[in-house]
Design goal:
Length: about 1100
């Protein structure tokens, strides 16, 4: 027989002992009597390196053994039955994500047979999130996808859900879990064959849920220190081996065990579940503990503070139980109850659990009797009694269940009493008085009683707790004036990670499928706008007012009413927005041909390719480089900064359709630029060229002119784009439907008009306007804040919140950037909740949270400049928070990948220019994936071995697989926006620029760096010089702030530091001038300095 503890942690996990080295773990395992020990934390790079250097493969078992000598832990003497343990490669992954309308927090144990498997798996996880800050990595990865990743890595990889009942971090937890295992793992459920019961439940409790009959139930310590190894463990018959151990569990799950098998799962060593710290219901802050019946009688509300109780494991088991009495399943592994030996000795001798005297007693027992598990489970009572009769009687009582218990609750461990104080006086007459033992062992609110099995059985009629948030999505109450369907879908959700079709790693909300062609109920304002056809129409729609919903409905109705798809155009600001609208229309009208729905540039590109099939679209970076080269040719005396500024000036002139004199330097630069683009037989175009060529060459006949042109985000149009729209419509503008919000016009630096309304009214005097004044996104408090930012005169009118949401508005003032970033990371960690039970205990009641739980994708950090991102990224990753900064993850920005892309572009161009054998070879290469072209790329000097090992190379391969050819990939690189590249497989806190966040929404938004110079942005201010921004520039910065504020639905956190570092310069910047307009609405916090420069935490001011 051998003992296996398969769930532990290393010193690289948060809140663990720093002594946890491999020799230390091996030494404790020998004291405990553990023969197979999990390594814990194998994804952490530093621990993985130690595993490689400190362990070697044991060929006979497929497990690993220690290269060196185990530490001597408790005693320098040999322990009778002790032998160095074998190690099984194991880690625990903390997954935080949304599924079925609620936040899930699932912990999963992962096992692999070899360190090479571990390395491959860790490399994959590293692409998804941060694995360096915590030995238990925190990822926004769905547990189903995690299992899929394990199976893709190795067919011998194993996943086992960890401590499946604990409230906060488990498969069935009352605050974070599912009601059925299939709801979590879906089609991959057959690959789950074992479940870890956790310290607060035992197999008998689990068997009350018949759905778990087909799973082996295992128990482990989840130890964070050497002394806690083996709090629970597993018993196997046979010789230890990786494959044999898990084969035995599979056999046990099938109820097909045979003691003659080479590998046999014999049972578990279990502490009494009452000793676990989440067994009963309660509220530790108020010292309230209740049984499930008592908490149900109180409505699961704490009678002291009125807050919800933490629903314990017993309560949650009863909720899912379909059996009302204990059952003994055929071929069920045995359960051996234990209490840790130091706890037993502490009770007998009246000693503190951490006293030196207790350590002496523990050492003496091991030296004379053997390992801890030998004493607790294997030695006869007579053998133990011969050494110490009191200890022998204690072990007998533990094995027979003759003990008194005090159930744990809300993070407070329970206690198990073997002897009463009176008994101890009689049994150990020479020992100190223990009359106060019971009083010291538990707070006043708790009870002590003999353990009775029936106490763990649910009473008849026990119902599910209303406070339990596990399982499916709750029904949302309807706000006054809000259509029922709008309420069911959470209002307008198209823009952000909480909405359907968000494409940001969040599972779509479940909803009833629409019947093809049927309408959806709109508000009265939306209905009036949707049905208007008598003149061109401009709809002014503020944040969350339902723009995408309205556009979709108008397209559906027009198609339903007989408009031909080719006579309808929908022009969007981004490719993603166009794809989303088409997806919604396709869902409503699955059998109908779809109209064009995409960007202005996509429309012009489609038209251009009809005439010039070999045309090439220049990426922005290449076009900018050619233009700057042309500026240098014409104006050689300009320095680099002025060259860049002049190039930007010319681009703005083109977008604004500003005339250029024939003999001007601008005209000369454009001629040089045109020549540079056509220095070969291939026609190359930049994005502005597309629109200019479209206007010049696109002559529409009345018979093919669109009847309807719908324009999204109309406030972002440049004059050049307005003229494109004008060219598509009759002189009157009939058929125009534009929707947008002038207060969200933030692209003046790209040539967008500062106020589109008067331009359109001058163009089409009959233009009608409508306003949508209900927001389905933000709370009223946030909407009022945004309105105040715009001097209480928003262009679309004052918005009314459709949902009765509360709001948290907090500002923080820090002396330094480092303190500001630490505060921000702490607040985000508080919103996400702790990622383990230990951390939860440390931060309980420390952070004011939002109603319900937050997932990583509910949170965004928005900055004015990309230069702010790296230091914030470091602060968040050091805190172990899953975070993605898409502007840092663009594979084509990698220097090595740029060489590969440039080489392949040359190959494609060469193939178009010639018609020989070489051209055929070049064309054939265009469909070969990167991996097949490695020899050629290396031979041509376009690739090195170093690049092959980078994440960028792997991302290139994935991007090629999606594109299907190099030509298509190069084209897509031109079109991509940074938000399009957010990793789709995992949720994370989003770290974005304010501009990139436009069109998205989040529950909580952080705005760090709320300083003059950053917001409003001014180059001179960042260089320590006075700067007077133009009124136009200042108002665009104000609108940018408006956009940032209205990304939030429930919480806003503004922060600013007096000193910060940017572009390598130490800066002292005042708080943003915009803060004076809105500061009265924020709860303000600050960190101040004493005269001695000592930092202290300030209070609310």
């Amino acid at each position: 027989m051998y003992v296996a503890d398969l769930h532990i942690h290393s010193r690289f996990s948060m809140a663990t002992s720093k002594q946890l080295t491999l020799p230390h773990l091996a030494g404790w395992a020998m004291c405990k009597g553990i023969h197979v020990l999990g390594t814990g934390d194998f994804t952490h790079p530093a621990w993985q390196a130690e595993l490689r250097t400190g362990l070697e493969l044991d060929e006979s078992s497929g497990l690993y053994r220690l290269k060196g000598v185990p530490d001597r832990i408790v005693t320098d003497r040999e322990i009778a039955d002790a032998r160095p343990p074998l190690f099984c490669l194991q880690t625990e992954i903390s997954s935080i994500y949304k599924r079925g309308g609620k936040v899930r927090r699932i912990h999963t144990l992962v096992f692999f047979p070899t360190l090479d498997d571990v390395e491959r798996f860790s490399r994959k996880l590293g692409q998804i999130g941060n694995i360096e800050s915590d030995g238990r990595p925190i990822l926004g990865l769905d547990a189903h996808d995690l299992l899929e990743l394990v199976l893709e890595t190795s067919d011998r990889g194993i996943c086992i859900p960890a401590h499946i009942w604990t409230p906060w971090f488990s498969l069935f937890g009352s605050r974070s879990g599912f009601d059925a295992i299939e709801d979590c793992f879906g089609d991959l459920t057959p690959h789950i064959f074992a479940l870890e019961t956790g310290l607060s439940s035992d197999p008998a409790m689990n068997r009350l849920v018949s759905a778990l009959d087909g799973f082996a139930l295992i128990s482990n310590s989840d130890a964070h220190s050497g002394a806690n190894l083996g709090r629970e463990a597993n018993l196997f018959l046979g010789q230890p081996s990786y494959d044999g151990m898990f084969a035995a569990l599979r056999t046990a799950a099938r109820r097909a065990r045979n003691r003659q098998d080479a590998d046999y799962f014999a049972g578990t060593l279990e502490i009494y579940p009452e000793e676990g710290k989440y067994h009963l219901d309660g509220h530790r802050a108020c010292q309230v503990v209740m049984t499930p019946e008592e908490s149900a009688a109180h409505g699961n509300i704490c009678p002291v503070c009125g807050k919800p109780l933490t629903i314990g494991v017993l309560h949650r088991v009863w909720e899912l139980a379909d059996r009302k009495k204990n059952v003994t399943l055929p071929d069920e592994p045995e359960v051996h109850p234990i209490i840790p030996l130091p706890s037993v000795l502490a009770q007998i001798y009246g000693l503190s659990a951490h006293s030196k005297k207790l350590q002496v007693r523990f050492q003496h027992a091991l030296e004379h009797l053997g390992s801890e598990f030998a004493i607790l489970a294997h030695l006869s009572i007579d053998e133990i009694s011969a050494y110490n009769p009191v200890l022998g009687e204690a072990i007998r009582r533990i094995r027979c269940g003759e003990i008194a218990l005090q159930g744990g609750y809300d993070g407070e461990f329970g206690t198990i009493t073997v002897f009463s104080p009176e008994e101890l006086k009689d049994l150990c007459p020479g020992s100190q008085d223990r009359a106060d033992l019971a009083a010291r062992s538990r707070k006043q609110a708790c009870r002590t009683e003999p353990r009775k099995t029936q106490k763990l059985l649910p009473p008849e009629g026990f119902a599910r707790s209303e406070q339990s948030t596990a399982g499916g999505q709750k029904v949302q109450r309807t706000a006054p004036g809000m259509p029922q369907e709008e309420a069911a879908q959470g209002g307008e959700q198209q823009d952000g990670p909480t909405g359907e079709d968000s494409g940001l790693g969040t599972a779509p909300r479940s909803r009833e499928p629409q019947q093809a062609g049927t309408g959806i109920k709109l508000t009265q304002e939306q209905e009036e706008a949707c049905t208007h056809v008598s003149s061109p129409l401009l709809v002014l729609a503020g944040p969350g007012a339902g723009k995408t919903r309205l556009l979709t409905e108008r397209i559906v109705r027009l198609l339903d009413q007989g408009t031909q798809p080719e006579r309808l155009l929908a022009l969007t600001f981004s490719r993603k927005a166009g794809e989303e609208i088409l997806a919604r229309v396709r869902e409503r009208l699955p059998e109908t041909e779809l109209p064009f729905c995409g960007t202005f540039h996509a429309l012009a590109w489609k038209s251009l390719r009809k005439k010039h099939s070999t045309a090439v679209l220049l990426p922005d970076e290449q076009a900018q480089g050619l233009l700057m080269q042309s500026v240098r040719t014409v104006l050689p005396d300009l320095d680099d900064r002025k060259v860049r500024d002049y190039a930007n000036h010319i681009e703005l002139m083109r977008e604004r359709c500003e005339p250029m004199a024939r003999d001007s330097s601008e005209r000369a630069v454009l001629r040089a630029y045109a020549q540079a683009k056509c220095n070969s037989t291939i026609l190359r175009f930049d994005f502005t060229d597309l629109l200019e060529v479209f206007l010049r060459d696109h002559e529409l006949q009345e018979s093919i002119r669109p009847e309807h042109v719908l324009v999204d985000e109309v406030q972002d149009l440049s004059l050049l784009q307005v003229r494109v729209v004008q060219s598509l419509l009759p002189f009157s503008g009939q058929g125009f439907f534009g929707i947008g919000d002038p207060d969200q016009s933030i692209y003046g630096f790209r040539g967008a008009l500062s106020d589109i309304v008067p331009v359109l009214k001058e163009l089409w005097p009959d233009l009608a306007t409508r306003s949508l004044k209900m927001s389905f996104r933000s709370s009223q408090k946030i909407l009022d804040l945004a309105s105040q930012t715009m001097h209480d005169a928003p262009s679309s009118g004052h918005l009314t919140a459709a949902r009765p949401l509360s709001a948290v508005l907090t500002s923080f003032e820090a002396p330094t950037q480092a303190i500001e970033e630490r505060w921000l990371a702490d607040q985000i960690a508080g919103l996400l909740g702790a990622t383990s039970h230990t951390l939860l205990d440390l931060q309980k009641d420390r952070y004011p949270g939002l109603p319900g739980d937050c997932s990583p994708s509910d949170i965004a950090v928005l900055v004015r400049l990309k230069a702010q991102i790296p230091s914030l990224m470091r602060a968040l990753t050091q805190k172990g928070i899953p975070v993605q900064a898409p502007s840092l993850n663009l594979f084509w920005q990698d220097e090595g990948i740029q060489k590969v892309l440039a080489f392949m572009e040359q190959q494609i161009l060469a193939g178009r220019q010639t018609f020989g054998l070489g051209s055929l070879l070049n064309i054939s290469r265009s469909t070969q994936p990167p991996a097949e072209l490695v020899p050629l790329l290396m031979q041509q000097g376009a690739l090195t071995e170093e690049i092959l090992a980078t994440p960028a190379w792997e991302q290139l391969g994935k991007a090629f697989a999606g594109a299907g050819s190099w030509e298509r990939l190069l084209e897509e690189v031109c079109w991509q926006k940074e938000v399009d590249l957010l990793q789709s497989r995992a949720e994370a806190v989003r770290l974005l620029t304010m501009h990139a966040a436009k069109g998205l929404e989040f529950r909580a938004v952080f705005l760090p760096g709320f300083n003059d110079g950053l917001l409003p942005h001014g180059r001179a201010l960042l260089r320590g010089r006075e700067e007077e921004l133009s009124q136009n520039a200042l108002e665009e910065e104000r609108r940018l702030l408006y956009v940032a504020l209205t990304r939030a639905s429930e919480a806003l956190f503004l922060s600013f530091a007096h000193k910060r570092t940017l572009y390598g310069r130490e800066l002292e910047l005042p708080v943003s001038r915009f803060f004076a307009d809105i500061s009265s609405l924020f709860a303000r916090k600050r960190m101040v300095r004493h005269a001695q420069k000592t930092l202290v935490q300030g209070s609310l001011v």
